[in-house]
Amino acid sequence: MWGFHDRLLTLRKALHEFMTRSQYARPLWRRWRWQLTQTNKQTGLQYSAEEWESEWANVLRLASSIPRGNKTEASENRSTTNIVDSRVKRLSN
Description:
The chain has 93 residues and is mainly α. The chain has one domain. The protein has 4 helices and no strands. The chain has helices at 10-21, 25-41, 49-63, 86-90. The radius of gyration is 15 Å and the shape is globular. Its EC number is 3.4.19.12.
């Protein structure tokens, strides 16, 4: 397996841009919602409109290059969230 350290967060920025501003943003959202609906059918879970919006906002937050953490902490303690979340993985399907 190959990998590299993306210190400038170039890939994360490109992913966030693609998920929010590209012509595929809306179809991507529909595919994500359909996939999550299929998964939720197994447990009987149903989201309200607000919950769908909140979940999507969370996925976009995960893809964002904005550092997380307490704003009062030193900048070296702030980091970005790992985007290996299973929901983000589903987007590539």
